[in-house]
Design a protein that fits this description.
- The protein has a single domain, classed as Metal-dependent hydrolases (TIM Barrel), CATH 3.20.20.
- With 345 residues, it is of the alpha/beta class.
- Strand 5, helix 10 and strand 6 form a beta-alpha-beta unit.
- The chain is built from 17 helices and eight strands.
- The longest helix has 19 residues.
- Helix 5 packs parallel to helix 7 and helix 7 packs across helix 8.
Length: 345
């Protein structure tokens, strides 16, 4: 590893928590809006940026989610959904990412233009598979249920996801975790687990340790999206460590949502000091105006992480990935080969 870099190029670079619909290029937003006559608050990228990209922080998590409206507004048909999925993987390749798990809510992506959510899932899968072939990046899909709608809508969203179960690796629950606690979705996740899907749940971001406990005990989560408030409960910390339940940490996103009030106050350093299984991720690059390299090279040191912690994040990401042992070995071998050839992407 280069002494002045936090990324270890001898290890795979992995992003496990990235929202596909929060990673749409602003150039694509402008182009698609122009093609379909969709009104935006600005007609060029730099003028649109302040309406989408967070500068500092927003008032709440839900205010942050509101930034998505300009991104999803242009998903006017299935070709648009297919295109943004393809471009997500292209952008991962440009960042030097070897493996990425892209998550999305088909209901959220479909509602503006009344698309069929199941068809959205199929279109996203088509885009990702084509981009995998063209870029060499390994990419998998996580289906989100948006809890903020309601439990019945989430059953319908899950129906759409399970209609294309073979394209998915896991199911997630995102949205307002305070008003819509995990217990409301037990039946949904029983269906997901019965379908053989892994489970990762947004928890411990806007709410406290009890939300993380519920995600594990009531929904069967083997990974937690964010989970940064877990440290408030020593028993939970012990449980997470013992059972190797991974925390998908998104440092800059947590600043932008107001979950923490500064890089120096982010608990990620203490998470790694406690030896928890955790890794660094981007969450919503288009809204935060970042990429994965930013999280390692800028956010991590500002949050007090050491280079060894950053390296451990890469090691942990491979362990946490929803991949078979053979697939993980292939990623390691591919990166080792690239490094031996002097390729650091």
């Amino acid at each position: 590893m280069n002494d002045d870099r936090y990324i270890d190029f001898g290890l795979p670079l992995i992003d496990l928590h990235r929202h596909l619909d929060g990673s749409i290029r602003l150039e694509t937003v402008i182009e698609l809006a122009d093609q379909q006559g969709i009104e935006l608050p600005a007609q060029d990228v730099e003028s649109l940026r302040p309406h989408v990209v967070v500068d500092g922080k927003v008032n709440s998590l839900m205010d942050f989610i509101g930034r998505f409206r300009y991104l999803t507004a242009v998903l006017h048909d299935l070709d648009a959904c297919r295109r943004v999925a393809y471009e997500n993987v292209e952008d991962a390749r440009r960042e030097g990412i070897d493996y990425i798990e892209l998550r999305f809510s088909p209901w959220f992506m479909s509602e503006t233009h009344d698309l069929d959510p199941a068809c959205v899932v199929e279109a996203v899968a088509d885009g990702i598979r084509a981009a995998e072939r063209d870029t060499g990046v390994r990419a998998q899909m996580i289906g989100i249920m948006s809890r903020t709608y309601d439990t019945e809508t989430c059953h319908r969203e899950l129906d759409a996801l399970l209609a294309h179960r073979d394209h998915l690796v896991a199911i997630d629950l995102a949205g307002d975790e305070v008003k819509f606690p995990a217990g409301l979705f037990r039946d949904h996740f029983r269906r997901a687990r019965d379908a053989g899907l892994d489970v990762t749940v947004h928890a411990g971001e806007a709410d406290g340790p009890e939300s993380v406990w519920a995600a594990i005990r009531e929904l069967g989560a083997s990974r937690i999206g964010h989970g940064i408030h877990s440290l408030r409960d020593p028993a939970l910390v012990e449980y997470l460590a013992e059972h190797r339940i991974g925390l998908e940490v998104c440092i800059t996103s947590n600043l932008h949502t107001g979950t923490v009030d500064g890089y120096g106050n982010h608990p990620v350093k203490r998470i790694f000091e406690r030896g928890l299984l955790a890794n660094l991720n981007t969450d919503d690059p288009a809204i935060s105006g970042i990429d994965l390299c930013h999280e390692y090279e800028t956010a991590a040191p500002l949050a007090g992480m050491t280079r060894q912690m950053a390296r451990q994040s890469q090691v942990n990401a491979l362990e946490m990935a929803f991949l078979s042992d053979d697939e993980k070995r292939v990623l390691l071998e591919k990166r080792a080969f690239a490094q031996a050839g002097g390729l650091t992407t």
